[in-house]
Specification:
4-stranded mixed beta sheet; Butyryl-Coa Dehydrogenase, subunit A, domain 1; 4-stranded antiparallel beta sheet; alpha+beta; 3 domains
């Protein structure tokens, strides 16, 4: 790949950088955000309103979905422009897709690829504008990584499905207007064959939810229950009992996002800056050979991750569904993020274990928050073990273990 930018591409980067810095300052009160503070899972109502405002501005400026086709409201941008956008957004620690992450990076592309024209016309525009926020109903208490073992049931009665069951670890369910929901519609079929993919209005009667509080104190995940929930038949995406293939498309887009949306490179830059303020084994950390070696390795791996995004973006621009190579980006990014966060804990020592409200806390306690939250990224969107199996079997051609 030729990494030299054309005059137009340089202008795009310059204009985008100016817009992002100006908008970030106007909406959030600062240029750039803390990489640990941009997750949609851990914002209060006031922060959520700011994210919605940022999303609306992103949409009006034409940046919210560079990777979508122009026909459906996107920019139809080329791979270089998409890579520039990701680089600039991640440099500032901003959310790549505003407040509607799940809709823009995976649900919308799935509908573009496999939905009906009526579904595209109805749902895509409000996704882009942020008027309708989406969540994803996949995992269940006994069907996480083994998603095909799900038991939430949908029975077709006339022109409606009647849904009963439970989902768990549903991101931003408490803020979502709609949900993509995997349900079992043929319990007698092999487990991959009897699943359907529905679009569900979260305001439908019979959908109570309960927040799940994590070790970080945040409660952005929810348990969601379905008690005789009626879903119109026209909200079925793809074929009846053919939802597994639709869900795989969504998962592939999600894993691409998992490798591109986390601002791990910015966090590593902050870790390097931290080494100039901390001591390690009695000397300035930045001068210690062990610390320097670790930081150099992190920086190299962050650059490898950036370059790997270009390959995935190019595949999408060629019209292909993201394949198993997307597992590499997700695995690499989340494991690198975990190792960097754990090293920050090692670098700070006991000081790194102080809560943000402790009187002697260092760095506002943000490194503790990152360390506590980092393990979760290796579980979301398919555990690291699942990603390694996908790479081994579908990329390297190794036999199943």
């Amino acid at each position: 790949m030729d990494f030299a930018l054309t005059t137009d591409q340089e202008r795009f980067r310059r204009d985008l950088r100016t817009w992002l810095e100006t908008t970030s300052l106007e909406v959030f009160g600062r240029v750039g955000l803390d990489p640990a503070g941009t997750s949609l899972l851990d914002v209060d109502d006031r922060q959520w309103e700011r994210l919605l405002e940022y999303h609306r501005r992103l949409h009006r400026a034409g940046y919210v979905a560079l990777h979508w086709p122009k026909e459906w409201g996107g920019a139809g941008a080329g791979p270089v422009e998409q890579a520039i956008y990701q680089d600039e957004v991640l440099r500032l620690g901003l959310p790549i897709y505003g407040a509607n992450q799940l809709a823009i990076d995976r649900i919308g592309p799935t509908l573009i690829l496999m939905g009906s024209d009526e579904q595209r016309r109805r749902y895509l525009s409000p996704m882009l504008s942020g008027d309708e926020i989406w969540c994803q109903g996949y995992s269940e208490p006994n069907a996480g990584s083994d998603l095909a073992s799900l038991t939430t049931r949908a029975v077709l009665e006339g022109d409606h499905f009647v849904v009963n069951g439970q989902k768990v670890w549903t991101s931003i369910a408490n803020r979502a207007h709609y949900q993509v929901l995997l349900v079992r519609t043929d319990p007698a079929a092999p487990k991959h064959k009897g699943i359907s993919y529905l679009l569900v209005d979260m305001r439908t009667p019979g959908i109570p939810m309960r927040p799940l509080r994590q070790i970080t104190g945040d409660a952005g995940f929810s348990e969601v229950f379905y008690d005789n929930v009626r879903v119109p038949r026209e909200n079925l995406v793809g074929e009846l009992n053919g939802g597994w293939q639709v869900s795989i498309a969504t998962l592939m887009y999600e894993r691409v996002s998992g490798g591109s949306r986390h601002p791990v490179a910015q966090m590593i830059d902050e870790l390097i800056a931290l080494s100039t303020r901390a001591e390690f084994s009695g000397i300035p950390a930045a001068q210690h050979p062990y610390v320097r070696q670790k930081l150099a390795q992190f920086k190299i791996e962050a650059e490898c991750l950036r370059l790997s995004r270009y390959r995935t973006i190019t595949r999408q621009l060629r019209g292909a569904i993201p394949g198993p190579e997307s597992s590499f980006g997700k695995l690499f990014a989340t494991e690198l993020n975990l190792r960097a966060a754990m090293f920050a804990d090692e670098l700070l020592g006991l000081d790194g274990n102080l809560a943000p409200d402790s009187p002697f806390v260092r760095e506002d306690g943000r490194w503790l928050r990152r360390t506590l939250g980092a393990r979760g990224y290796t579980v979301a969107a398919g555990t690291s073990e699942i990603q390694r199996n996908i790479i081994a079997e579908r990329v390297l051609g190794l036999p199943k273990g």
